[in-house]
Specification:
By secondary structure, this protein is α/β, with parallel strands linked by helices. The chain has 2 domains: 49 residues; 256 residues, 2-enoyl-CoA Hydratase, Chain A, domain 1 (Alpha-Beta Complex). Helices cover 52% and strands 16% of the residues. The chain contains 14 helices and 8 strands. Helix 9 links the parallel strand 5 and strand 6. Helix 1 runs antiparallel to helix 2, helix 6 runs parallel beside helix 8 and helix 8 packs parallel to helix 9. It is globular, with a radius of gyration of 21 Å.
């Protein structure tokens, strides 16, 4: 059953009407309602295009968080063949918030690291809503070093509200683990590509997104803090999250202009959750194009270009 966001109410009403008419048509209670269904379908499609053609940053935040949006494991199942997940950080334990392993992307070996939010209550609890603890970032760094050793490119799928802020995570060195994972991203001599597929929140995202190429879905968000967190700090009022989002430049369009991301992946009309297969396929094309750009470069050049990319962002925005 499709879940609608608050701003999608006009579309929800039209699509509900379409379902009613289809039920009448199937039940034989109406004779010539095919034309009416087609007319309302056209109206609903147009309304959806208009809505998604002018989303505010806060509305994009809602779309990025949509519960039916495809998550990391959905991308892995469709894009990665022969995927073998690996677990544990070899220091403390396993963290299911970050999924990692090796497989084949279009016939070539890759290491995949991604945040998994889960798709129902049980899986969300298992994956801690995609909010990783230190062991998750240490696992990510371990897999990156392993990929570097075997000269295998790294693909990261970013979808997290941020690193887990619990006491246990802080006691086990959350900040240090994020820093080590970011350092691993910067230091590996193999190409790495990051795709922001939903939320890219704070250090929890940058820990695995410091890549040669950063691609971002059209309605994803990427920021140093959530709009609610910014509103809490600036105004001590999370109700001002919508206002915070409007000023934070968290959308793909803003970040492309600033040079923070390299490519925007178009989403199906109505967002990735309306047609997950199409969104995943488009993301696969963008990942393939990014890897192709880096093919044939030696490790020293890959490291240098990656570092220059991020240093340039700092200079441009300073």
């Amino acid at each position: 059953m499709r879940s609608y966001l608050d701003f999608e109410k006009p579309v929800a009403e039209l699509e509900a009407k379409i379902e009613e008419l289809r039920a009448l048509q199937a039940g034989g209670d109406a004779v010539a309602i095919g034309e009416e269904i087609n007319r309302i379908e056209g109206k609903a499609e147009q309304a959806l295009k208009e809505l998604y053609g002018g989303l505010t940053p806060w509305q994009k935040t809602q779309v990025a968080r949509h519960p039916q949006r495809p998550h990391c494991l959905d991308y892995v199942s469709r894009l990665i063949a022969d995927f073998v997940p690996l677990a544990g950080d070899r220091t403390f334990g396993e963290d299911a918030a970050i999924v990692g392993g090796f497989g084949r992307f279009r016939g070539e070996s890759v290491s995949v690291i991604g945040h998994e939010k889960g798709s129902d209550t049980d899986s969300r609890l298992k994956h801690n809503f995609g909010m990783a603890r230190p062991e998750g970032y240490r696992k990510a760094a371990r897999l990156m070093h392993m990929a570097d050793h075997f000269e295998i490119p790294v693909v990261a799928l970013i979808d997290t509200a941020g690193a887990y802020p619990g006491i246990g995570a802080e006691e086990r060195g959350q900040a240090e683990a994020i820093a080590r994972s970011t350092e691993a991203c910067l230091g590996i001599g193999v190409p790495n590509v990051a795709a922001v597929i939903g939320e890219g929140g704070s250090g929890g995202a940058i820990a695995v997104a410091t890549a040669n190429r950063v691609i971002m879905l059209e309605h994803a968000i990427y920021s140093v803090i959530s709009p609610e967190g910014a509103a809490s700090i600036l105004w001590r009022d999370t109700a001002k999250a919508q206002e915070a989002a409007a000023h934070m430049k968290i959308t793909a369009q803003d970040l492309l202009r600033f040079g923070v991301v390299d490519t925007i992946v178009p989403e199906p009309t109505g967002g990735a959750h309306r047609d997950p297969a199409a969104a995943i396929a488009a993301t696969g094309e963008a990942i393939a194009a990014a890897l192709a750009e880096l093919q044939g470069l030696d490790s020293a050049t890959i490291v240098r270009l990656r570092r220059e990319k991020f240093m340039a962002i700092g200079r441009a925005m300073g």
